[in-house]
Amino acid sequence: MKKGLIISLLALSALTSRADEGMWMLTDLKAQNAAAMMELGLEIPIEQVYNADGISLKDAVVHFGGGCTGEIISAEGLVLTNHHCGYGSIQQHSSVEHDYLTNGFWAMNRDEELPCKGLTVTFIDRILDVTDYVNEQLKKDDDPEGINYLSPKYLAKVADRFAKAENIEMTPATKLELKAFYGGNRYYLFVKTVYSDIRMVGAPPSSIGKFGADTDNWMWPRHTGDFSLFRIYADKNGKPAEYSTDNVPLKVKKHLKISLAGIEENDFTFIMGFPGRNWRYMISDEVKERMETTNFMRHHVRGARQEVLMAEMQKSPAVRIHYASKYASSANYWKNAIGMNEGLVRLKVLDTKQKQQEQLLARGREKGNDAYQKAFDEIRSIVAHRRDAMYHQQAINEALVTALDFMKIPSTGELKKALASRDKEKIKAAIAKLKEEGEKYFASVPFPEVEKAVGKAMLKTYSGYIPQEQQIGIFKVIDSRFKGNSDAFVDACFEYSIFGSKENFDRFIKKPTLNKLDKDWMVLFKYSVTDGLLQTALAMKEANKNYDAAHKVWVKGMMEMRQDAGTPIYPDANSTLRLTYGKVLPYEPADGVVYNHYTTLKGAMEKEDPNNWEFVVPAKLKQLYEAKDFGPYAMKNGEMPVCFIVNTDNTGGNSGSPAFNGKGELIGTGFDRNYEGLTGDIAFRPSSQRAAVVDIRYTLFIIDKYAGASHIIKELDIVK
């Protein structure tokens, strides 16, 4: 499809598109969305939202840690994001003595702000439509396999060429990201600047930041203060730099104004962020495949792992702190998978997809064009052929890779080669390297008894879903050497492997032998897992070899058909900066049930259960509630707002996204979706899909009245 045709389709679709569906490219806002946004309630020029040649709201929205969104809320680089986005960093600084997960953390001055190793914040400097340039390069370059148009490796080379041709200034902190959109029919280049000296400024206790935990996750109504604060530091010239005590807070070019005016039902709002992935152009066979492979394994395997982890975490504060972030990450998409499958069935999405498919196929037949039928048949065939490999791959990944930290043992390949060569210098170097990596490994798995318990559960879970004849090779060893007793095999791993304990490792390092490596249980286990992943990947690669070309044709047809029907046309999410807009609205999850568009602190008090860690309310928060000491952050009726919902089109990656009112002022921080809307990654249902947002007034109330961190409030640009 030609670039001009896509632009015209996008412009036409904007005339009739629903405001609540669509993850829109910022570069297209002026042409296709500005009029609709103004009609709904946008009060500022669209150039103040996004301006390719000047400063706009876009410049205050950042990619936080690579998987979340954040917003700049002060002139000195203060970043607001979700508590669950900052969770890993909060955990990083927590210990039994300083349990910031449980008690919260507030830096009362700049010297107390804590550096977060490995955390980055990324600004999007420029967004360039480079479709014509990429298409020119595709014609020039050899492409024997016909995959360049979607290859990240190839597109990275093209990005470098473009930057040189256009004299784009490159620094060590500059990153180029060239991505394909619409199945490879359009290309955008993102020029980014990455900051790596990020420091933790504030986080409420988990009893506020994770109030409701797994029970309330993906649900509405919500009563969580899901936020945390970080600060970007730079060198004295304002340039990105590694951590140094000489670094200073970044003087940003744009920060957001914060509104205390609050929200009302039907208020216009828009959200900017980095939605991760969605799959709106799937055929029904792909939806069914997703339900029966990825979602199935996430549901059942993670559920089994989490049951073991939770039991262990409740026994020991140290264990709880160590595994808190891992557990939260696992549980998040465990519940997502359950809710998505339930919703796909309840909303009969497969039926809807089949009707859409038949419409496009009929359209092709009417026009005498069999391209859509061929693409459809090809995708169906691919899905059928890769199904078993995908199912097995998901089982390996969920049960034996993601779940087992002890499978992250260092590679012994270099030492093995050195020992075989009998070269003393090579052996000495390989031992030194393995010793260094071993120290890091043992620091990462300080609770072997927990790893052992999880390992036993996961091997049973894996073997329960994969037929014996298809299981990875290590299970033949378990059958022959351990009489099928996988528990005994896990015990042997920790008792005899060189990575089973620090003592075993130290003994081996003193006298390493090839024989020991060749017979080491953990090493053999890891090799077997790696081989299993390789075999399933090869099987899927063979099945998938024609998928991209067929998908490109199918997406082209769906776009044309949607344009004719007056429905929106926009690219699937791919972790690039997008905007979505809509209104603050309630919804009806079931007959006779209406969910209001906002919640208050009263709801948290009603949910309180001091015997359930998920619903503990801090004593000080109760005191503030009982005294109605809400300061300037209360609603007009005197109640303390907590969260609200909007009918915008969000997905994973939008966590931490700023929610704006019509004036472009910050009114909240997006943190979740509702359970009934989890099908939105595949099929958007405007009547039931909502994004949950922490009301900025609750965030300020917690910072000011609960934490007593009034110095942070003074740093902000607050308007009434």
Walk me through the structure.
This protein has about 725 residues and is an alpha+beta fold. The chain folds into two domains: about 1-55 and about 65-80 and about 205-240 and about 245-275 and about 570-720, Thrombin, subunit H (Beta Barrel), CATH 2.40.10; about 285-410 and about 445-545, no CATH class. It has 27 helices and 23 strands. α15 (about 415-420) packs antiparallel against α16 (about 425-445). The chain starts with a helix and ends with a strand. The model is unreliable at about 1-15 (pLDDT under 50).
Q: Could you name the CATH class of the largest domain?
A: Mainly Beta
Give helix % range.
40-55%
What is the structural class?
alpha+beta
> At CATH's second level, what is the architecture of the largest domain?
Beta Barrel
Rg, nearest Å? 27 Å
Give the terminus-to-terminus CA distance.
Answer: 48 Å
CATH superfamily caption of the largest domain: Trypsin-like serine proteases
Approximate shape: globular
| Biggest beta-sheet profile | 11 strands, antiparallel
The CATH topology of the largest domain corresponds to: Thrombin, subunit H
